[in-house]
Specification:
There is one protein chain. This protein has a 6-stranded mixed sheet, sandwiched between helices. It has a 4-stranded antiparallel sheet with strand order 2-1-4-5. It has a 4-stranded antiparallel sheet with strand order 12-13-11-14, with helices on one face. α3 crosses α4 and α4 packs across α5. 33% of the residues lie in helices and 29% in strands. It starts with a strand and ends with a helix. It is elongated. It is of the alpha/beta class. It contains 10 helices and 14 strands. The protein folds into 2 domains: 213 residues, P-loop containing nucleotide triphosphate hydrolases (Rossmann fold, 3-Layer(aba) Sandwich); 72 residues, Alpha-Beta Plaits (2-Layer Sandwich).
Length: 293
């Protein structure tokens, strides 16, 4: 669906983004996390075609976003550097009508009403956008992004300025879009809230993609504190009862039979100091990963 290869952006001699490669598949929610200045918004601007890369390329459904123009971007819905920009002297409905006309949307009236209701801004749809609150403008921006039923949805901090109910509503919307097969790429600082929604997280630091974390596994996981953890992981990977084994900091994380993994480790001479279900705290992992980067 979306693929970025060796993506980089330079201003003068300074690289603000270097050799970033990632892919987002249909039906997947991919979150970008990183401190301010790490390159999240720059990456999103490159992916959406709002900025041109100094290196690398971006393709959407096989089309180069920067060379194919409308052929690639017609599949894209985005809100970059929220809240989205609208004509303040026009109503929310009128702004969406203009977008629908520009995109050649069929059955525009019904679709506009659908997205206004879905984002719960139907009550202010006929008020001028200049009078909207920040949260209302944020929701209208999301309505605009999904209006033409894009294949790829790109959102820069989509829950910024929203109350807890609004954040929950946005997360429900993104989950529904992914279930329909839409690829979703977003940046966020709300890591604990987003961890229940996203499938993968890319961690950016100083313009580089320093890690990708897989969160979509449905199989039970366990974390172990074991002597010689690197050797223990290599050993566990040889066991048929262990479907996956990897290191997360000082912890050994496994998927598969805990009892058999423990028995095999002890029989092999490893010391197991602790074994617990793996309730992954994305925020804590992110903090540690950025600190190490």
């Amino acid at each position: 669906m979306l693929e970025a290869q060796g993506l980089g952006k330079r201003y003068g001699r300074r690289w603000v983004l270097e050799r970033v490669s990632l892919a987002v598949n249909g039906g997947e929610v991919y979150a970008l996390a990183g401190p301010n200045g790490s390159g999240k918004t720059t990456l999103i601007r490159l992916v959406t075609g709002l900025a041109f890369p100094s290196a690398g390329r971006v393709s959407l459904l096989g089309e180069n976003v920067h060379e194919s123009g409308w052929r690639a971007r017609k599949h894209l819905g985005a809100v970059v550097e929220a809240p989205a920009a609208f004509y303040p002297h026009m109503t929310g409905r009128q702004n969406l009508e203009r977008l629908a006309w520009m995109s050649g949307l069929k059955n525009a009236e019904a679709r506009i009403r659908e997205v206004l209701m879905r984002l719960e801004v139907i009550s202010v749809a006929d008020q001028k956008v200049g009078a909207y609150s920040l949260g209302q403008r944020q929701r209208l921006g999301l309505a605009a992004a999904i209006l033409a039923e894009p294949k790829l949805l790109v959102l820069d901090e989509p829950t910024s300025g929203l109350d807890p109910d609004g954040i929950q509503k946005v997360h429900e919307l993104l989950a529904e879009e992914a279930q329909k097969g839409t690829a979703v790429l977003l940046s966020t600082h709300h890591l604990r809230e987003a961890s229940s929604l996203v499938h993968r997280v890319g961690i950016l630091s100083a313009g580089r993609l320093v890690d990708e974390v897989e969160l979509s596994g449905e199989r039970p996981r366990y974390r172990l504190r074991v002597s010689e953890p690197e050797r223990a992981v290599a050993f566990l990977k040889t066991l048929a009862e262990v479907e996956a084994a990897f290191l997360r900091g000082d912890w050994v994380v496994i998927e598969g039979s805990l009892d058999r993994a423990l028995a095999a480790l002890v029989a092999e001479g490893y010391k197991v100091h602790e074994a617990t279900p793996d309730y992954f705290d994305l925020y804590e992992y992110y903090r540690e990963r950025v600190r190490r980067a």
